[in-house]
Amino acid sequence: MNRIALTGLALAVIMAAGGAGYWAGHRGLPVPGPSEWLGREGTRVAGEPAGTGVVIYYRDPDGKPLYSAEPRRTEDGRAYRAVRASQDIGFDEPATAPAAKANGERKLLYYRNPMGLADTSLVPKKDGMGMDYLPVYAGEDVDETVIKLSPGRVQRSGVRSERVSRQLITRPIRVPGTVQLDERRIAVVTTRSDAFIQEVATVTTGDRVAKGDRLVRIYSPEITAAGAQFLTELNAAARGVPEGGARQRLENLGVPPEIVAEIERSRKVPLTINWPAPRDGIVLERNVVDGMKTAAGDSLFRLADLSIIWVIADVPEGDLAAIRIGAPATIRLRGRPGTVFEGKVGLIYPQVVEATRTTKVRIELANREGMLLPNMYADVEIGSGAAAPALAVPDSAVIDTGTRRIVILDRGEGRFEPREVKLGQRGDGMVAISEGIAEGDRVVLSANFLIDAESNLRAALSGLGPTETRPFEVKP
Fold it and tell me: Where is coiled-coil annotated (predicted)?
């Protein structure tokens, strides 16, 4: 049963390798291959197994790194050697001439199974699929966790690797927002006593006013009485009588300081009082007309200073952890394409809107040229990320199986090692690695799924093989 399963898996590997070689050859890619397998015009060299399958490419008869997708000849007229599908396969370089590799400087120990099975031999041999066992020399570290691919396999697969470095990872969070008034810059004009509106200034909703501009002229019996008492106390103070509380009463009624100063200077109580604007701003509401009566506390005007304004962004609950106070924000107005404002996150509201599962984030902006108007729609981009650089790799380097996250380390010379890692924050096509690799390691960016698949296949084949027995050393 194990033999049947092993044969099936091996056939799958042969088909995958053959197909890859075929297409690589027809694209004209420079694919390395064994120089010993074929003779002139695709004939077999004496002592070598016959190739099967289609011719996938041609290589220089002298073993030089020269390849062709079509038959061709050297400058001296010799034909390139044809390489067939069955001859361009193996997880490692073919070992057709182990004696030539075992030179005097290296001692041959044994031969190991080319498919990674726990099977070794003291003499050269082939496996059930006709693949040569690979020689192992003294001093070689045979690491079962490392996958070794031939240069041809590496080149055909398009393996590309990159060195791991520390980077500052940022991830922009793009959310909708609306322009809102700064609540601290809104003022309501009112009186603290009953009054009659004698005259309203020529200001309407939307007009801009400055601090101190006259808004209305009012008559208030209570303010007039308090002013008369204040004048009496001023005259008594001139005769040495201490001043009473009339001045304080006028201040409690909200009479502007300039009106109190005018009574003190002129020694006259005006019948009507000009009520000024308390601050610069835009008239949002006008609630008075000439001749009407107002009660204490009624809103006469509502003003707002638009020099500083808020943008309230709706951030999904899942992105809240990535946003911090002070994070940079870019605002683009939908009504003014091409106009960009820069600001910072000033407040993350301490509640989640139940209906939308979003949290409001406030960004404070200087309203240059008054372009930002209340209730405008805006597109908000909030920068997020770690404050310090972290080890990071491109997203394509990570294989996520659902239960494990793996990267493939490039150990050089066609050797690759799968390594389980722990991930951190993502952003800008990069992902932080908190555990599993070190700075300076090289990780595979492309074709890593193919390498990982081969690693899993080897693990499966090893599970089907017999218990490993270490051979005796070959005596010279």
Answer: none
